[in-house]
Automatic annotation (TrEMBL):
Keywords: Glycoprotein, Hydrolase, Signal. It comes from Oryza alta. Belongs to the 'GDSL' lipolytic enzyme family. Coiled coil: none annotated. One of its GO terms (biological process) is lipid metabolic process. This is Putative esterase. The gene is OA_BBa0050L12.7.
Length: 458
Protein backbone atom coordinates (compact mmCIF):
# COMPACT_ATOMS: atom_id res chain seq x y z
CA UNK A 1 0.00 0.00 0.00
CA UNK A 2 1.24 3.49 -0.79
CA UNK A 3 2.70 5.44 2.10
CA UNK A 4 1.26 8.76 3.23
CA UNK A 5 2.84 11.63 1.38
CA UNK A 6 3.88 9.28 -1.41
CA UNK A 7 1.33 8.05 -3.89
CA UNK A 8 -1.53 10.10 -2.48
CA UNK A 9 0.50 13.29 -2.41
CA UNK A 10 1.53 12.62 -5.98
CA UNK A 11 -2.07 13.08 -7.06
CA UNK A 12 -1.39 16.80 -6.71
CA UNK A 13 0.96 16.57 -9.69
CA UNK A 14 -1.55 14.55 -11.69
CA UNK A 15 -5.12 15.50 -10.94
CA UNK A 16 -4.59 19.02 -9.63
CA UNK A 17 -3.95 20.22 -13.15
CA UNK A 18 -7.44 21.51 -13.73
CA UNK A 19 -8.40 19.39 -16.67
CA UNK A 20 -11.94 20.07 -15.44
CA UNK A 21 -13.13 19.83 -19.03
CA UNK A 22 -11.14 22.93 -19.97
CA UNK A 23 -11.51 22.18 -23.66
CA UNK A 24 -15.23 22.85 -23.11
CA UNK A 25 -14.98 25.58 -20.47
CA UNK A 26 -12.27 27.85 -21.82
CA UNK A 27 -13.86 28.74 -25.19
CA UNK A 28 -17.14 29.49 -23.43
CA UNK A 29 -15.45 31.75 -20.89
CA UNK A 30 -13.62 33.52 -23.69
CA UNK A 31 -16.92 34.18 -25.41
CA UNK A 32 -16.15 32.21 -28.53
CA UNK A 33 -16.19 28.77 -30.00
CA UNK A 34 -12.41 28.34 -29.95
CA UNK A 35 -10.73 25.14 -31.02
CA UNK A 36 -11.44 23.15 -27.89
CA UNK A 37 -12.65 20.18 -29.86
CA UNK A 38 -9.27 19.86 -31.59
CA UNK A 39 -7.52 19.41 -28.26
CA UNK A 40 -9.64 16.56 -26.98
CA UNK A 41 -7.61 13.42 -26.41
CA UNK A 42 -10.32 10.81 -27.07
CA UNK A 43 -13.39 10.91 -29.26
CA UNK A 44 -15.15 7.97 -27.59
CA UNK A 45 -14.94 5.48 -24.74
CA UNK A 46 -15.90 1.79 -24.79
CA UNK A 47 -16.27 -0.18 -21.57
CA UNK A 48 -16.43 -3.89 -20.72
CA UNK A 49 -16.92 -5.16 -17.18
CA UNK A 50 -19.25 -6.07 -14.32
CA UNK A 51 -21.41 -4.24 -11.76
CA UNK A 52 -18.62 -1.77 -11.01
CA UNK A 53 -19.14 -0.37 -14.51
CA UNK A 54 -22.69 -1.32 -15.62
CA UNK A 55 -24.66 1.84 -16.42
CA UNK A 56 -27.94 0.05 -17.13
CA UNK A 57 -27.45 -3.02 -19.30
CA UNK A 58 -28.77 -5.34 -16.62
CA UNK A 59 -32.18 -3.65 -16.66
CA UNK A 60 -32.33 -3.19 -20.43
CA UNK A 61 -31.43 -6.84 -20.92
CA UNK A 62 -34.24 -8.15 -18.72
CA UNK A 63 -38.01 -8.09 -18.87
CA UNK A 64 -39.87 -5.42 -16.90
CA UNK A 65 -41.07 -8.07 -14.45
CA UNK A 66 -37.55 -9.40 -13.90
CA UNK A 67 -36.21 -5.89 -13.44
CA UNK A 68 -38.60 -5.34 -10.54
CA UNK A 69 -36.77 -8.14 -8.71
CA UNK A 70 -33.40 -6.42 -8.98
CA UNK A 71 -32.51 -4.68 -5.74
CA UNK A 72 -30.45 -2.01 -7.51
CA UNK A 73 -33.45 -1.12 -9.68
CA UNK A 74 -35.13 0.10 -6.49
CA UNK A 75 -34.66 3.19 -4.30
CA UNK A 76 -32.45 4.35 -2.68
CA UNK A 77 -30.08 3.42 -5.54
CA UNK A 78 -29.36 6.53 -7.60
CA UNK A 79 -30.46 8.90 -4.83
CA UNK A 80 -27.42 11.17 -4.83
CA UNK A 81 -27.04 12.36 -8.40
CA UNK A 82 -29.94 11.06 -10.48
CA UNK A 83 -32.64 11.17 -7.82
CA UNK A 84 -33.93 7.75 -8.90
CA UNK A 85 -32.54 4.26 -9.67
CA UNK A 86 -30.70 3.92 -12.98
CA UNK A 87 -29.57 0.31 -12.44
CA UNK A 88 -26.14 1.56 -11.43
CA UNK A 89 -24.85 -0.22 -8.34
CA UNK A 90 -24.27 2.95 -6.34
CA UNK A 91 -26.03 5.96 -4.87
CA UNK A 92 -25.02 7.95 -7.95
CA UNK A 93 -22.37 7.92 -10.63
CA UNK A 94 -19.77 5.22 -11.20
CA UNK A 95 -16.06 5.50 -11.91
CA UNK A 96 -16.74 5.11 -15.64
CA UNK A 97 -19.20 8.01 -15.51
CA UNK A 98 -16.47 10.30 -14.18
CA UNK A 99 -13.91 8.94 -16.62
CA UNK A 100 -16.31 9.30 -19.51
CA UNK A 101 -16.96 12.94 -18.75
CA UNK A 102 -13.27 13.78 -18.45
CA UNK A 103 -11.63 11.85 -21.28
CA UNK A 104 -12.54 14.56 -23.76
CA UNK A 105 -9.94 16.77 -22.10
CA UNK A 106 -6.38 16.85 -23.39
CA UNK A 107 -5.05 20.30 -22.54
CA UNK A 108 -3.91 20.49 -18.91
CA UNK A 109 -3.69 23.67 -16.88
CA UNK A 110 -2.45 24.16 -13.37
CA UNK A 111 -5.16 25.19 -10.93
CA UNK A 112 -4.92 28.54 -9.23
CA UNK A 113 -4.78 26.65 -5.96
CA UNK A 114 -1.52 24.96 -5.02
CA UNK A 115 -1.81 23.24 -1.67
CA UNK A 116 -0.30 19.83 -1.09
CA UNK A 117 -3.31 18.82 0.98
CA UNK A 118 -5.64 18.87 -2.02
CA UNK A 119 -5.64 15.54 -3.76
CA UNK A 120 -8.51 15.88 -6.20
CA UNK A 121 -10.65 18.40 -8.01
CA UNK A 122 -13.62 16.79 -9.70
CA UNK A 123 -16.29 18.44 -11.80
CA UNK A 124 -19.76 17.27 -12.67
CA UNK A 125 -18.86 17.58 -16.32
CA UNK A 126 -22.32 16.70 -17.57
CA UNK A 127 -23.22 20.32 -16.81
CA UNK A 128 -20.82 21.23 -19.60
CA UNK A 129 -22.82 19.18 -22.10
CA UNK A 130 -20.74 15.96 -22.14
CA UNK A 131 -22.89 12.80 -22.19
CA UNK A 132 -22.91 9.89 -19.79
CA UNK A 133 -21.86 6.61 -21.39
CA UNK A 134 -24.99 4.75 -22.61
CA UNK A 135 -25.53 1.02 -21.99
CA UNK A 136 -24.91 -0.87 -25.22
CA UNK A 137 -28.19 -2.81 -24.99
CA UNK A 138 -30.28 0.35 -25.08
CA UNK A 139 -32.41 0.35 -28.20
CA UNK A 140 -31.83 3.29 -30.52
CA UNK A 141 -28.86 4.63 -28.57
CA UNK A 142 -26.24 6.88 -30.13
CA UNK A 143 -22.94 5.10 -29.57
CA UNK A 144 -20.62 7.28 -31.65
CA UNK A 145 -19.25 8.91 -28.50
CA UNK A 146 -18.97 5.58 -26.72
CA UNK A 147 -20.85 2.57 -25.38
CA UNK A 148 -20.86 0.50 -22.22
CA UNK A 149 -20.99 -3.28 -22.57
CA UNK A 150 -20.50 -3.96 -18.84
CA UNK A 151 -23.25 -5.84 -17.03
CA UNK A 152 -23.95 -6.93 -13.47
CA UNK A 153 -22.77 -10.46 -12.75
CA UNK A 154 -20.28 -10.61 -15.62
CA UNK A 155 -17.41 -13.07 -15.36
CA UNK A 156 -14.13 -13.37 -17.20
CA UNK A 157 -14.56 -17.12 -17.65
CA UNK A 158 -17.44 -18.23 -19.85
CA UNK A 159 -20.46 -20.03 -18.51
CA UNK A 160 -19.56 -23.38 -20.06
CA UNK A 161 -16.26 -23.48 -18.21
CA UNK A 162 -17.81 -22.48 -14.89
CA UNK A 163 -20.41 -25.19 -15.39
CA UNK A 164 -17.66 -27.73 -16.09
CA UNK A 165 -16.16 -27.14 -12.64
CA UNK A 166 -19.51 -27.45 -10.90
CA UNK A 167 -20.58 -23.81 -10.96
CA UNK A 168 -23.50 -23.81 -13.37
CA UNK A 169 -26.59 -22.68 -11.57
CA UNK A 170 -27.28 -20.83 -9.29
CA UNK A 171 -24.55 -18.37 -10.32
CA UNK A 172 -25.90 -15.21 -11.90
CA UNK A 173 -23.98 -14.67 -15.11
CA UNK A 174 -25.66 -12.13 -17.40
CA UNK A 175 -22.90 -11.52 -19.90
CA UNK A 176 -19.46 -13.05 -19.62
CA UNK A 177 -16.52 -11.33 -21.26
CA UNK A 178 -16.90 -13.22 -24.54
CA UNK A 179 -20.58 -12.21 -24.71
CA UNK A 180 -19.71 -8.54 -24.19
CA UNK A 181 -17.18 -8.74 -27.01
CA UNK A 182 -19.96 -10.01 -29.25
CA UNK A 183 -22.17 -7.09 -28.18
CA UNK A 184 -19.41 -4.70 -29.17
CA UNK A 185 -19.08 -6.39 -32.53
CA UNK A 186 -22.79 -5.93 -33.18
CA UNK A 187 -22.51 -2.20 -32.40
CA UNK A 188 -19.68 -1.48 -34.82
CA UNK A 189 -21.89 -0.60 -37.82
CA UNK A 190 -23.50 2.15 -35.77
CA UNK A 191 -20.17 3.36 -34.39
CA UNK A 192 -17.91 3.61 -37.41
CA UNK A 193 -17.54 2.52 -41.02
CA UNK A 194 -17.73 -1.21 -41.63
CA UNK A 195 -14.51 -1.19 -43.65
CA UNK A 196 -11.39 -2.07 -41.63
CA UNK A 197 -9.58 1.23 -42.17
CA UNK A 198 -12.64 3.26 -41.23
CA UNK A 199 -13.06 1.54 -37.88
CA UNK A 200 -9.33 1.38 -37.24
CA UNK A 201 -8.93 5.14 -37.53
CA UNK A 202 -11.90 5.78 -35.25
CA UNK A 203 -10.97 3.23 -32.59
CA UNK A 204 -7.37 4.45 -32.46
CA UNK A 205 -8.71 7.71 -31.00
CA UNK A 206 -10.97 6.00 -28.47
CA UNK A 207 -10.35 4.83 -24.92
CA UNK A 208 -11.11 1.20 -24.08
CA UNK A 209 -11.69 0.09 -20.49
CA UNK A 210 -11.49 -3.68 -20.13
CA UNK A 211 -12.77 -4.54 -16.67
CA UNK A 212 -12.85 -4.84 -13.81
CA UNK A 213 -13.36 -8.52 -14.56
CA UNK A 214 -12.61 -11.54 -12.41
CA UNK A 215 -14.41 -10.52 -9.24
CA UNK A 216 -17.55 -12.49 -10.07
CA UNK A 217 -15.50 -15.54 -11.03
CA UNK A 218 -14.18 -15.61 -7.48
CA UNK A 219 -17.64 -14.86 -6.07
CA UNK A 220 -19.07 -17.87 -7.89
CA UNK A 221 -16.37 -20.06 -6.40
CA UNK A 222 -16.24 -18.67 -2.86
CA UNK A 223 -19.98 -18.36 -2.27
CA UNK A 224 -20.72 -21.84 -3.59
CA UNK A 225 -18.28 -24.03 -1.74
CA UNK A 226 -14.75 -23.41 -2.98
CA UNK A 227 -12.02 -22.56 -0.49
CA UNK A 228 -9.77 -19.56 -1.10
CA UNK A 229 -6.95 -21.92 -2.06
CA UNK A 230 -9.18 -23.71 -4.56
CA UNK A 231 -10.22 -20.38 -6.08
CA UNK A 232 -6.59 -19.31 -6.24
CA UNK A 233 -5.83 -22.31 -8.46
CA UNK A 234 -8.01 -20.73 -11.15
CA UNK A 235 -6.43 -17.26 -10.96
CA UNK A 236 -3.94 -17.89 -13.82
CA UNK A 237 -6.80 -19.01 -16.09
CA UNK A 238 -8.94 -16.01 -15.11
CA UNK A 239 -6.09 -13.58 -15.77
CA UNK A 240 -5.10 -15.25 -19.04
CA UNK A 241 -8.73 -15.05 -20.17
CA UNK A 242 -8.78 -11.31 -19.44
CA UNK A 243 -5.55 -10.84 -21.39
CA UNK A 244 -6.96 -12.83 -24.30
CA UNK A 245 -10.01 -10.58 -24.21
CA UNK A 246 -7.85 -7.47 -24.41
CA UNK A 247 -6.39 -8.87 -27.61
CA UNK A 248 -9.32 -10.64 -29.20
CA UNK A 249 -12.74 -9.60 -30.46
CA UNK A 250 -15.31 -11.20 -32.71
CA UNK A 251 -14.33 -9.89 -36.12
CA UNK A 252 -16.90 -10.82 -38.73
CA UNK A 253 -17.38 -7.19 -39.75
CA UNK A 254 -13.68 -6.69 -40.33
CA UNK A 255 -12.75 -9.88 -42.17
CA UNK A 256 -16.20 -11.10 -43.19
CA UNK A 257 -16.22 -14.07 -40.83
CA UNK A 258 -13.07 -15.70 -42.28
CA UNK A 259 -11.93 -16.52 -38.74
CA UNK A 260 -13.66 -16.39 -35.38
CA UNK A 261 -11.63 -13.73 -33.59
CA UNK A 262 -9.50 -10.76 -34.49
CA UNK A 263 -7.14 -8.91 -32.23
CA UNK A 264 -8.73 -5.83 -30.73
CA UNK A 265 -5.44 -4.04 -31.10
CA UNK A 266 -5.29 -4.93 -34.79
CA UNK A 267 -8.62 -3.18 -35.23
CA UNK A 268 -6.99 0.03 -34.14
CA UNK A 269 -7.51 0.15 -30.37
CA UNK A 270 -4.45 1.98 -29.10
CA UNK A 271 -5.45 3.09 -25.58
CA UNK A 272 -6.62 0.32 -23.26
CA UNK A 273 -7.21 0.53 -19.49
CA UNK A 274 -7.35 -2.76 -17.58
CA UNK A 275 -8.39 -2.49 -13.91
CA UNK A 276 -7.51 -5.04 -11.27
CA UNK A 277 -9.85 -6.30 -8.55
CA UNK A 278 -10.71 -4.64 -5.24
CA UNK A 279 -9.68 -5.57 -1.68
CA UNK A 280 -12.88 -7.58 -1.27
CA UNK A 281 -11.83 -8.78 2.17
CA UNK A 282 -12.69 -5.30 3.46
CA UNK A 283 -16.31 -5.20 2.22
CA UNK A 284 -19.34 -6.08 4.40
CA UNK A 285 -20.73 -8.72 2.02
CA UNK A 286 -17.60 -10.84 2.34
CA UNK A 287 -17.00 -10.03 6.00
CA UNK A 288 -20.53 -11.23 6.75
CA UNK A 289 -20.96 -14.18 4.39
CA UNK A 290 -17.41 -15.53 4.64
CA UNK A 291 -16.66 -14.68 8.25
CA UNK A 292 -13.96 -16.70 9.98
CA UNK A 293 -13.69 -17.99 13.54
CA UNK A 294 -9.91 -17.77 13.25
CA UNK A 295 -8.77 -14.35 14.49
CA UNK A 296 -5.52 -14.66 12.55
CA UNK A 297 -7.58 -14.46 9.34
CA UNK A 298 -8.23 -10.77 10.06
CA UNK A 299 -5.68 -8.01 9.61
CA UNK A 300 -5.23 -4.89 11.74
CA UNK A 301 -8.02 -3.14 9.83
CA UNK A 302 -10.55 -5.92 10.40
CA UNK A 303 -10.33 -7.16 6.81
CA UNK A 304 -10.21 -10.82 5.84
CA UNK A 305 -6.58 -11.47 5.04
CA UNK A 306 -7.02 -14.59 2.82
CA UNK A 307 -9.48 -12.77 0.53
CA UNK A 308 -7.24 -9.75 0.15
CA UNK A 309 -4.26 -11.99 -0.51
CA UNK A 310 -6.28 -13.59 -3.32
CA UNK A 311 -6.97 -10.12 -4.77
CA UNK A 312 -3.29 -9.21 -4.51
CA UNK A 313 -2.28 -12.44 -6.25
CA UNK A 314 -4.76 -11.76 -9.07
CA UNK A 315 -3.56 -8.18 -9.49
CA UNK A 316 0.12 -9.12 -9.42
CA UNK A 317 -0.40 -11.78 -12.06
CA UNK A 318 -2.49 -9.39 -14.16
CA UNK A 319 0.16 -6.67 -14.05
CA UNK A 320 2.81 -9.13 -15.16
CA UNK A 321 0.72 -10.30 -18.10
CA UNK A 322 -0.08 -6.72 -19.10
CA UNK A 323 3.60 -5.80 -18.99
CA UNK A 324 4.30 -8.64 -21.41
CA UNK A 325 1.48 -7.47 -23.65
CA UNK A 326 2.82 -3.92 -23.65
CA UNK A 327 6.28 -5.15 -24.58
CA UNK A 328 4.81 -7.15 -27.43
CA UNK A 329 3.06 -4.14 -28.94
CA UNK A 330 5.56 -1.41 -28.08
CA UNK A 331 7.29 -1.81 -31.43
CA UNK A 332 4.06 -2.06 -33.42
CA UNK A 333 3.67 0.31 -36.40
CA UNK A 334 0.90 2.08 -34.47
CA UNK A 335 2.00 2.36 -30.81
CA UNK A 336 -0.34 0.80 -28.28
CA UNK A 337 -0.62 2.00 -24.68
CA UNK A 338 -1.90 -0.46 -22.09
CA UNK A 339 -2.68 0.97 -18.65
CA UNK A 340 -3.16 -0.96 -15.41
CA UNK A 341 -5.78 0.74 -13.20
CA UNK A 342 -5.14 0.01 -9.53
CA UNK A 343 -8.47 -0.43 -7.76
CA UNK A 344 -6.90 -2.25 -4.84
CA UNK A 345 -4.46 0.30 -3.43
CA UNK A 346 -6.73 3.32 -3.62
CA UNK A 347 -9.86 1.60 -2.31
CA UNK A 348 -7.86 -0.01 0.49
CA UNK A 349 -6.64 3.42 1.58
CA UNK A 350 -10.17 4.80 1.51
CA UNK A 351 -11.50 1.86 3.53
CA UNK A 352 -8.65 1.79 6.03
CA UNK A 353 -8.35 5.54 6.67
CA UNK A 354 -11.66 7.11 5.58
CA UNK A 355 -11.32 10.17 7.79
CA UNK A 356 -8.24 11.20 5.85
CA UNK A 357 -10.34 12.46 2.96
CA UNK A 358 -12.73 15.42 3.14
CA UNK A 359 -14.82 17.64 0.90
CA UNK A 360 -14.92 21.37 0.30
CA UNK A 361 -16.42 23.61 -2.35
CA UNK A 362 -14.36 26.34 -3.99
CA UNK A 363 -15.04 28.90 -6.69
CA UNK A 364 -12.60 29.32 -9.57
CA UNK A 365 -14.27 32.45 -10.85
CA UNK A 366 -16.82 30.95 -13.20
CA UNK A 367 -17.60 27.44 -11.97
CA UNK A 368 -17.93 25.84 -8.56
CA UNK A 369 -15.88 22.70 -8.03
CA UNK A 370 -15.82 20.13 -5.28
CA UNK A 371 -12.46 19.31 -3.72
CA UNK A 372 -11.46 16.16 -1.98
CA UNK A 373 -8.89 17.22 0.58
CA UNK A 374 -6.17 15.23 2.32
CA UNK A 375 -6.95 16.01 5.94
CA UNK A 376 -3.88 14.43 7.51
CA UNK A 377 -2.42 17.02 9.80
CA UNK A 378 -5.36 19.41 9.49
CA UNK A 379 -7.70 20.85 6.94
CA UNK A 380 -5.01 22.64 4.98
CA UNK A 381 -6.23 26.07 6.02
CA UNK A 382 -9.53 25.92 4.20
CA UNK A 383 -11.59 26.85 7.21
CA UNK A 384 -14.85 25.24 8.28
CA UNK A 385 -16.98 22.88 6.28
CA UNK A 386 -14.34 20.26 5.60
CA UNK A 387 -15.27 16.85 6.94
CA UNK A 388 -13.67 13.50 6.24
CA UNK A 389 -15.45 10.31 5.27
CA UNK A 390 -16.90 9.05 8.51
CA UNK A 391 -17.03 5.39 7.57
CA UNK A 392 -14.97 2.98 5.51
CA UNK A 393 -16.08 -0.60 6.01
CA UNK A 394 -19.65 0.08 7.20
CA UNK A 395 -22.27 0.09 4.43
CA UNK A 396 -24.27 3.28 3.98
CA UNK A 397 -27.29 1.36 2.68
CA UNK A 398 -28.18 -1.82 4.49
CA UNK A 399 -29.70 -3.20 7.66
CA UNK A 400 -28.69 -4.49 11.04
CA UNK A 401 -26.41 -1.69 12.13
CA UNK A 402 -23.27 -2.75 13.87
CA UNK A 403 -19.81 -2.74 12.35
CA UNK A 404 -20.92 -3.66 8.84
CA UNK A 405 -24.63 -2.68 8.60
CA UNK A 406 -25.19 -5.61 6.26
CA UNK A 407 -27.78 -8.39 6.20
CA UNK A 408 -28.08 -10.59 3.15
CA UNK A 409 -31.86 -10.94 3.52
CA UNK A 410 -32.27 -7.17 3.87
CA UNK A 411 -29.85 -5.85 1.29
CA UNK A 412 -29.98 -2.32 -0.05
CA UNK A 413 -33.14 -1.92 -2.13
CA UNK A 414 -34.98 -4.62 -0.18
CA UNK A 415 -37.58 -4.34 2.56
CA UNK A 416 -35.95 -3.59 5.89
CA UNK A 417 -32.93 -1.80 4.43
CA UNK A 418 -32.36 1.95 4.50
CA UNK A 419 -29.70 4.40 3.37
CA UNK A 420 -27.66 6.63 5.61
CA UNK A 421 -28.46 10.34 5.56
CA UNK A 422 -25.27 11.37 3.75
CA UNK A 423 -23.81 8.75 1.38
CA UNK A 424 -20.84 11.01 0.67
CA UNK A 425 -19.68 10.37 4.24
CA UNK A 426 -19.27 6.68 3.43
CA UNK A 427 -16.84 4.82 1.19
CA UNK A 428 -19.00 1.68 0.97
CA UNK A 429 -22.51 2.03 -0.44
CA UNK A 430 -24.34 -1.32 -0.23
CA UNK A 431 -21.85 -3.75 1.22
CA UNK A 432 -20.00 -4.54 -2.00
CA UNK A 433 -19.99 -1.37 -4.16
CA UNK A 434 -18.58 2.10 -3.50
CA UNK A 435 -20.39 5.42 -3.17
CA UNK A 436 -20.37 8.18 -5.76
CA UNK A 437 -18.01 10.16 -3.53
CA UNK A 438 -15.50 7.31 -3.54
CA UNK A 439 -15.99 6.69 -7.27
CA UNK A 440 -15.14 10.31 -8.03
CA UNK A 441 -11.90 9.97 -6.11
CA UNK A 442 -10.98 6.67 -7.79
CA UNK A 443 -11.53 8.20 -11.23
CA UNK A 444 -9.23 11.07 -10.37
CA UNK A 445 -6.51 8.68 -9.27
CA UNK A 446 -6.72 6.92 -12.62
CA UNK A 447 -6.89 10.03 -14.77
CA UNK A 448 -3.86 11.78 -13.36
CA UNK A 449 -2.21 9.08 -11.30
CA UNK A 450 -0.75 7.59 -9.27
CA UNK A 451 -3.33 4.81 -9.29
CA UNK A 452 -3.11 4.03 -12.99
CA UNK A 453 0.13 2.96 -14.67
CA UNK A 454 0.61 5.03 -16.74
CA UNK A 455 -2.09 7.62 -15.89
CA UNK A 456 -4.84 7.89 -18.50
CA UNK A 457 -4.30 11.56 -19.29
CA UNK A 458 -0.51 11.48 -19.40
Amino acid sequence: MARRGGALAAVVDGVLVCWLCWCAVQPALAGGGGDGGKRCKYNAMFVFGDSLADTGNICVNKSAAATLLLTFAQPPYGMTYFGHPTCRCSDGRLVVDFLGTHIHVHARRRAAIADSKIILIANAAQELGLPLLPPSKRSGGDFRRGANMAIVGATALDFDFLKSIGLGYPIWNNGAMNVQLQWFHHLLPSICATQPQGCRAYLSKSLFMFGSLGGNDYNAMLFFGFTVDQARNYTPKIVDTIIAGVEAINQSIIQKMLVQFLKLIAMGAAEIVVPGVMPVGCFPLYLTMLRSSNRSDYDEHGCLRPLNELSIYHNTLLQGRLAGLQTRYRAAPAPVRIMYADYYTMVAQLLHTPARFGKQLINLGAVWFELVVDLMGGNGGYGGGVAGFRSGITACCGAGGGEYNYEFEARCGMKGAAACRDPSSHVCWDGVHTTEAANRLIAGGWLGGPYCHPPILH
